[in-house]
Batch of 2 targets.
Target 1
Amino acid sequence: MAKLFRAAIMGPPGSGKGTISKRIAESFGLQYLSSGHYLRESIAANTEAGLLVKTYVDRSMMVPDHVMTRLMLPRLEQLHGHSWLLDGFPRTLSQAQALNSLVQLDLVISLNIPYETLRERLSDRWIHPASGRVYNMGFNPPRKQGKDDVTGEPLIQHDDDKPEALMSRLRHYKDMAKPVINLYKSQGIHYSFSGTDTNRIWPYINSLLSTKIDTQPSDAFQTQTP
Ligand code: G5P
Ligand code: MG
């Protein structure tokens, strides 16, 4: 049996967590869990909890810790026996502590992207509000300008992606992330990647993970020791 591997990816809004997570999940066969995805799913379900969540997500504000842990931890419990990658959770020390009481992570990746790069990316970002699908006019444009690839519905831009709002979101992100990063540094599992270009960062993450993840599908493929 391949050894289980549990990782998380952290980084400010627009840092490329989603883009890199998808590559990791595909290359290494990990289950992928995105906090933003589950939040949007709960909003779409239109429950009381979903409506509450919407008031935060619409303003790009942090959803309260107890709501986040109640949303994420049961899903991780269901993945008992699987290797997985978390995108966007934990984001606060309290979330990290709740996660720690359930499982010890093997590795945490932080994306350290200059502010100017984030500003450019997010001001170029268009969203399909119903599904949360995200496009970037330079990096991954929709097939038809201004329209969602799947539904053909119009794309919108977020008020929160305007420069002033973005600056305050990023400052807030850093304040929240610092103690989380320190926790994972103290556990010796934190790796930080800096750069302006996802395609340039990816090979470094890929080679780090190649050394950490046991991708042997079964014992039968392992070399026999004499
Ligand atoms: P999300 O959904 O986690 P954010 O704001 O943290 O949202 P986002 O927007 O999903 O982060 P990302 O995943 O880090 O960004 O980045 P991405 O989507 O891969 O890339 C961003 C854009 O840049 C895309 O258009 C992509 O195509 C483009 N891009 C990527 N790489 C490059 C490149 O090299 N060059 C160029 N030119 N473009 C590139 O969370 C949403 C909300 O949910 C709440 C919060 O309200 C949050 O705002 N929330 C939580 N609240 C509390 N606790 C938690 N744990 C929470 N998790 C979510
Ligand atoms: Mg994302």
Note: Confidence is low (pLDDT under 50) at residues 217-226.
Target 2
Amino acid sequence: MKKQVIVSGMRPTGKLHLGHYLGVIQNWVELQDKYDCYFFAADWHALTTKYDKTEDLRQNTLDVVMDWLACGLDPEKCVIYVQSLIPEIAELNIYLGMITPQNWVERDPCLKDMAKILKTKEGQGSQINYGLMGYPVLMSADIMMFNSDYIPVGIDQVAHIEITRDIARRFNNLYGEFFHEAKPLLNNCSLICGLDGNKMGKSFNNDIKISDTAEETSKKVMTAITDRSRLRKDDLGHPDECEVAFKYWKIFGTEEEVQTVRHECEKGLRGCAQCKRCLGDKINEKLAPIREKRKYYEQNPQEVEKILNEGSAKARIKAQEVLKEVRKLVKMY
Ligand code: TRP
Ligand code: SF4
């Protein structure tokens, strides 16, 4: 039986952090065994807000893909490509744009959030451009290009998948039943918080990068928030109020280790500094094989480029099949 199709992408914003790894990439790695998977760097989507700062785009694309490969995405099992290397997506975007009512894109909650952010800027960069308005249409083209069934995304992207479903339905009504109505598969985006207890994010300066060295990681872990009521190391601790460090233990430690940490903390037998030193070692131990793999790709970027070129070529073959059918249905010349 033919496998169902999954598509997902990320805007290439640079090196990824543990939130991406645990919440998104780990999930992708599991999916690649069960589905026909297409994973891509959404460099056109990056342009919607960063069109005036493109000098890092290429390196950022390589960086996210190196992180994916290091975490276990396997080009033998899934197709890994760059959005802008598939011009068929741009053509599909045109057809979908024609059938998308203006108020569907204006309703997009992400656009409203972005409008608020942009308003705080000055001059040229403060306006919403046509491309940004079209964000959900382009995303629909990404998804429909491979006639996908499921889209693994975070909760913040579900509104976009809804628009995609609406556009697919509208296309099918206008031109004939062809596209599947893709369903979201929710990622666990909040699996790990930042070192300060807020959402982990690159711009909040509270993240641990997949590509950080063991030393950098240990140093960062020492800054993690603990039980704020604890002043001396023999004060009795409250692991459940230890805002970050104990939560990390629960993610990276074995059940037994977590029990030991809890016990020693509650009895005042373990100081927070010592606890976080151990935690840093634990995290480093888990990440060591991933980092080793990443280092390999950093030293062999031509291999990453080869993977992207071959993946993009593969993706184009499927995209061309779909586009041929679409042109026929729309009755283009
Ligand atoms: N908008 C997504 C994000 O910011 C990235 C993306 C672009 C995407 N096209 C997609 C995700 C298609 C899934 C499917 O996270
Ligand atoms: Fe948190 Fe460990 Fe300190 Fe307890 S000892 S409060 S678990 S960092």
Note: The CA atoms of residues 155 and 186 lie 6 Å apart.
